[in-house]
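Sample entry (302 residues):
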Amino acid sequence: MKIRFVFTLLTLLLGLVFANAQQTFNQALSQMKIEQNLGKQVPLEVPFFDSSGKRIKFGELFGKRPLVVLPMFYQCQGICGKETDNLLKTVAKLSELKVGKDYDVVFLSIHPQETPELARNKKTSLLKVFTDESTQDGFHFLVGAPNIDRGTSLTGAQKMESERESLSNIRRVTDALGFGFAYDEKDGRINHPAGLMILTPTGMISGYIVDAEYPKPVLQEKLALAESSKIGKKAEVTLLGCIMIDPVTGAKSLVIENVIRLIAGIFAIGLFVWIGIMAVKNRREPILPGSGPRSGGTPTHV
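Predicted structure, serialized as tokens:
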């Protein structure tokens, strides 16, 4: 009876785990996407903070040259790091075009809790190899900003409201870019795809690279089109799976891997419980007369 109860409980628990995992996977997958909105104008009046803490409008970055926009977040040590490294390597190889002169690069944080200080630290660490000051001026590290700058001394409710406004403003830009991501307000976890956008000097979407690698010839061609205010063709899509990224540790794993680990853990616990029940049952079971071990041979009657 006890064994049947344990296995019934395990079955119910596994059902709940699968249902919850499937729901989480579906929700994340439905939001994590890149829709190539070629020719669409991005909103220019959206507020952001730059790495110096200055409050700017997104449109202030336009007007002179094309922009490469990489949606990411600074505390991420997963796919964002790979994207950032690959983009900077390509920029360094692209000697024909110079950042700050021929085009600009925007690292756009999609995490509403990130601050200008984080942006500044990331800028310092990433741009060590670019010693030319004019080149560094062509890199922009942005974080979301609320509609009203409430300062730093905020109550819990005010801080939450500011974060929600920041997320709303971030999404105004990312939605126009076609960059879909899932943000969990409870634990700050983010699911997002890999990819960047190339915009014309007026803020119109000219091209996409939907991947975590940005080859020099591809980026150079798309920048040339954007500089001429031309719209390119749709890029081939390489979606890197449903990536769960912890904003604290930067750990990433496929949802299905977490489910498998959890199932294995539940079965291990169930096995130990079953062994424990059987051991206790055998220990308490009385030994009946005549049920002891027999020595073999024919019984002798006296």
